[in-house]
Amino acid sequence: MGNTYHQVYVQIIFAVKGRQSFLKKEFREDFFKVMASMIQNQGHKSIIVNGVADHVHCLVGLNPDKKISDLVKDLKTDSNHFLKDKNWVLGKFDWQNGYGVFSYSRSQLDRVYQYILNQEEHHRKKSFREEYISFLKKFEIEYKDEYLFEFYEDE
Questions:
Q1: How many Å apart are CA 63 and CA 153, to the nearest integer?
Q2: Is the pTM here over 0.85, yes or no?
Q3: Which H or E element spans position 49?
Q4: Where would you tag: which of 3, 72, 85, 100 has the fewest CB atoms within 10 A of its CB?
Q5: How many CB atoms lie within 10 A of CB 60?
Q6: Mind listing the pLDDT tens digit for each residue in 61-105?
Q7: CA 147 to CA 38: how far, in whole Å?
Q8: Taking the CB of residue 77, how many other CB atoms lie within 10 A of it?
Q9: C-alpha span between 70 and 77 (Å, rounded)
Q10: How many alpha carbons fall within 13 Å on the CB side of residue 23?
């Protein structure tokens, strides 16, 4: 649409069903590159996709003509099929229902990028549950425990 300008950045977080550690280190980097391409193919700008064995963070420049819910639904579906086609996951792989999405200004992008880039180091100190709840609190999002991801104590 002419004369329409936008700058909308979000971080999307979602988890492996059952929080199983299916996203193995040996293929994770390649898988996240494929997910970044999937985001681009849906008409959005992929800034970084990274995570650990049981969850993913995506920093995205949104196309305002498209819905976030469609992006996440298609990203989960397409990445699920990709993992199964590559036989990178042994067992039944699925993403958990739901996701978190948090918005940022342009001035915050470098800090968020670095945070997502350093997920492995970050999760040596903080569990996924602690991380996710801290996002909800920081962004003042009301939530009910029964509607959060399935969380399991880190072993």
A1: 37
A2: yes
A3: strand 45-52
A4: 3
A5: 25
A6: 999 999 999 999 999 999 999 999 999 887 788 999 999 999 999
A7: 27
A8: 12
A9: 10
A10: 26
